[in-house]
Specification:
The strands form two sheets. A two-stranded antiparallel sheet has the order 1-2. It has a two-stranded antiparallel ribbon with strand order 3-4. It is elongated. The chain contains three helices and four strands. The protein has 100 residues and is an alpha+beta fold. It is 27% helix and 20% strand. The protein has one domain.
């Protein structure tokens, strides 16, 4: 039997008695589309040079994948919470630090 655990509250979800939900988040680099009828008189070497200079400054980001898909399992309570605030704005994360 497959075990499901809510990725938000860490509670085990019993698939026989309750519905579990999957949230898929897709992150992809956004590019401005080139118009078909637009003349392509860009300096491609200059664009490559600019990209390489940006990669030197942002070296960590340069090697990250441009497309990522994340999948999470949620219980019904956490699904409702996620739908109300999908980006988690204004929420405070509890890190579980000790009182030392």
């Amino acid at each position: 039997m497959i075990r499901y655990v809510c990725d938000m509250c860490k509670r085990e979800i019993d698939p026989i008695r309750e519905t579990h939900y999957q949230v898929k988040i897709e992150i992809a680099a956004a590019f401005d589309p080139v118009e078909e009828g637009e003349p392509d008189d860009r300096d491609h070497l200059e664009e490559i040079h600019d990209l390489l200079e940006r990669f030197d400054v942002q070296n960590e980001e340069a090697f990250e994948p441009a497309h990522v898909v994340l999948t999470f399992d949620l219980c019904s309570k956490c699904r409702r919470s996620f739908l109300r605030n999908p980006l988690g704005r204004g929420t405070v994360r509890v890190l579980g630090m000790s009182d030392n």
